[in-house]
Design brief:
The protein contains 18 helices and 27 strands. Strands 8, 9, 10, 11, 12, 13, 14, 15, 16, 17, 18 and 19 form a twelve-stranded antiparallel beta sheet that branches. This is Heparinase II/III family protein. Residues 381-602 form the Heparinase II/III-like C-terminal domain.
Length: 732
């Protein structure tokens, strides 16, 4: 395995790192791209291949902008508006032009960066805070409506400046540094200490931008402050973010969407540290947490898209530029050809030293399949605040089950303890709403999170987990949510599939929620099922709701529905219920209650639930009390019981059949599950079911140790080694 230069040596403790300072940094460029990288990249332009293709593509894009001219508008628009997008485009252009200058050595590209920086240097001193600044809870920028975007501007712009600074006159350097770069860096640090010192993705971008500016502008104290917070106490800063925001396995506390977003400043600043101060051995920090974070970001995806938990835009996936940078660095660090598989899927080459290595390796056909795993990623800085569990299976099309006995996830977290999602044949089947937001669409609340993000998307009823008395977990209090995390009881993957259990007793006072989910392979049938066992134990009687949100068209149920075909009403008045239309309701008789829907992947899905005759089924559609049509009209149903202090929701999700309207055939449109029963033998859960006339016994050992044991069922002896066993019953 190849190890990159900033992965050498031993891990150095924070206390030892704090002693290291820098007085004079290397010649330019030396942030992400070094002079050595430039020489290698220039040589690569003499041969055909992906790297040269990307160079020519970027050069053409920059040339078009050179012809168009420089535009630096007065800031006035929120996210998605013209001035916002122009300033965003400008920092990307400056960065791109700086790279083209270094590779082509044509002065016009350096002049383009210089001239745009001088335009900004003339504008910036005249600016007050942005006119479209957000509410008081968030610090404003000057060029942008929030300081987060200002920090992103600096991360890119300081790299552009680093790439061209040696071509500038003393007067240009003085104007650009003293009227622009230094004021921006000071504005983002001393001017906004609450953000700069914050352990949060906003703080990550700010510290990365200011720290990189410290290297370029020869301000070693800026680097120290970026690493250890403004007073250099270590209570905040870049290293504290590495300590607190990632679990030991590299899972980011705010979830996959923000993990990929924060990845770029983490990786970029780390490379700058490594190139300027290799003695810090930054990539060894926390046992190589940066590389773990990159790999974990990939694992947190399905069919190219990130699992949409917390405040997530559901269209974000592994081709996002942040992860393109991450994968490029990961391959440079390790030489692992599995990363080339992801790079090939991303279809983007970074013009850097590592990017050259990726391009050459892809040209040589060295990519091998990246291995996605069934895994439980511990949450919290110590990995002891629950976990995010991914179960994967491949019969008849790759499947994934996401289970979330994870922590709150700070302000971007949702009130969805013990929720789950299911994916099959490339599509979301049991769904999560994600965030209510039209990113950078100014007409939709300035591109910010919509009011419905709080009133619906974050609320518990918008997820697939139990709601008590129509009140969201922690009574929708983020501070309370951040104090309490679920417990991961166990996770196991084996030849039978995967199983996991989690519980929490702090989401509601006097209520314990415990859920066990399993993705089970029925090898004789070449298919899988998902098992869901959800137990609620409370000190007082309550109303319990268990929603399931699904993607697809309702097909059938094996019980009659009282459908609201003429007039609909909202299901409730608050906590997300006010946004759900009640479309139909029913109370199935005791036994097996089935609901079937058809997904756009052409497969049918049936949720079969054991009911006691007291459960109501409420069929819902999102969109009530939504005057601006901000919410997507998605479908679901809620299983409801009233006045109980103990209840267990038991269900099986079964993929089956095929619908092909093009070729005009339908196969196995009805559920093959004909019988389901459940018994308990101490800590042993036994589920008997019949699928396609084949009787199965599924055993789940709930003992956390799960030592090998024997048991009897219907006069037959069985042996169970671990948490999950699957048996084809042949003697009944």
């Amino acid at each position: 395995m190849k190890i990159f230069n900033f992965y050498t040596g031993l891990k150095i403790a924070v206390t030892a790192l704090a002693i290291t300072t820098c007085s004079a940094f290397a010649t330019h460029p030396n942030l992400v791209i070094t002079q050595s990288d430039v020489e290698k990249m220039r040589s690569a332009l003499n041969q055909s291949g992906r790297f040269n293709d990307r160079y020519l593509e970027l050069k053409q894009q920059v040339d078009q902008q050179l012809a168009f001219g420089i535009v630096v508008p007065l800031p006035k628009d929120g996210g998605g508006g013209y001035s916002h997008e122009r300033h965003k485009k400008n920092y990307q252009l400056m960065y791109g032009a700086g790279i083209i200058y270094q590779l082509s050595q044509e002065q016009k590209y350096a002049d383009f960066v210089r001239d745009m920086l001088l335009e900004y240097a003339a504008l910036y001193p005249t600016l007050d805070v942005h006119p479209k600044r957000k509410v008081k809870s968030q610090n404003p920028g000057k060029l942008f409506w929030q300081s987060l975007n200002e920090a992103m501007w600096l991360v890119y712009t300081i790299q552009a400046y680093d790439l061209v600074v040696e071509t500038l006159t003393d007067q240009d350097i003085n104007d650009i540094e003293h009227k622009l770069l230094r004021p921006v860096a000071l504005f983002l640090s001393q001017g906004q200490p609450s953000t700069f010192n914050k352990v949060h993705n906003h703080g990550t971008w700010a510290t990365a931008g200011v720290g990189m500016a410290g290297y370029v502008l020869d301000e070693p104290q800026w680097v120290e402050k970026a690493l250890y917070d403004l007073d250099k106490s270590g209570k905040g800063g870049f290293l504290k973010q590495l300590d607190m925001l990632f679990s030991p396995q590299g899972y980011y506390n705010e979830g996959p969407y923000y993990q990929r977003f924060a990845l770029l400043p983490f990786v970029t600043f780390a490379q700058a540290i490594a190139h300027n101060e290799p003695e810090r051995k930054i990539a060894h920090y926390r046992d190589g947490i940066l590389l773990k974070a990159i790999d974990t970001t990939i694992q947190l995806s399905y069919n190219g898209l990130f699992f949409p938990i917390n405040d997530a835009i559901k269209s974000k996936g592994i081709d996002t530029i942040e992860l393109v940078h991450g994968v490029t660095v990961a391959y440079g660090l390790t030489g692992d050809t599995g990363y080339l598989d992801i790079a090939q899927q991303q279809g983007q080459i970074i013009l850097s030293g590592d990017g050259l290595e990726v391009a050459n390796a892809l040209d040589e056909g060295l990519a091998t399949p990246y291995q996605f795993r069934s895994v439980a990623f511990g949450d919290g800085s110590q990995g002891d605040e629950g976990a995010l569990v991914i179960m994967r299976s491949k019969p008849n099309g790759e499947q994934a089950l996401l289970f979330k006995p994870a922590s709150q996830g700070l302000g971007h977290g949702h009130f969805d303890k013990l929720t789950w999602q299911f994916y099959d044949k490339g599509q979301e089947i049991v769904s999560d709403y994600g965030a209510a937001r039209f990113l950078n669409v100014e007409a939709k609340f300035g591109g910010r999170y919509l009011p419905e993000n709080n009133s619906y998307a974050k609320q518990t009823v918008a997820h697939n987990t139990v709601v008590v008395d129509e009140i969201s977990h922690f009574n929708s209090d983020v501070k309370q949510g951040n104090k309490h995390a679920p417990t991961l009881n166990f996770f196991e993957t084996s030849e039978y599939g995967s199983v996991s259990s989690g519980q929490i007793n702090t989401a509601y006072e006097g209520v314990e929620l415990e859920r066990t989910l399993a993705l089970v392979e029925l090898k004789e049938l070449g298919s899988t099922i998902a098992i869901d066992l959800y137990s609620v134990n409370a000190s007082q009687p309550h109303q319990l709701d268990l929603p399931l949100h699904y993607k697809g068209q309702f097909i059938d149920s094996n019980f009659d529905l009282n459908t609201q075909s003429q007039q609909m009403t909202a299901l409730g008045k608050k906590n997300g219920y006010q946004h759900l239309w009640l479309r139909a309701q029913a109370r199935p008789e005791k036994g097996l209650a089935k609901v079937t829907w058809l997904n756009e992947n052409g497969r049918f899905y049936t949720l079969s639930s054991l009911v006691n005759g007291e459960e109501s089924f409420l069929f819902t559609q999102v969109g009530a009390n939504d005057p601006n049509f901000n919410l997507r009209n998605e479908h679901g149903f809620i299983r409801r019981v009233k006045g109980v202090n103990r209840h267990q929701f038991i269900s099986i999700l079964e993929p089956h059949g095929e619908y092909n309207p093009s070729k005009e055939y339908t196969l196995v449109a009805q559920s093959r599950l004909s019988a389901l029963s459940h018994t308990q033998q101490g800590e042993l859960t036994l589920i008997e079911l019949t699928v396609a006339d084949k009787p199965y016994l599924i055993a789940i050992n709930n003992n956390k140790g799960a030592s090998k044991r024997s048991f009897k069922y219907k006069n037959q002896s069985y042996s169970l080694d671990g948490h999950l066993g699957v048996y084809l019953m042949t003697n009944i």
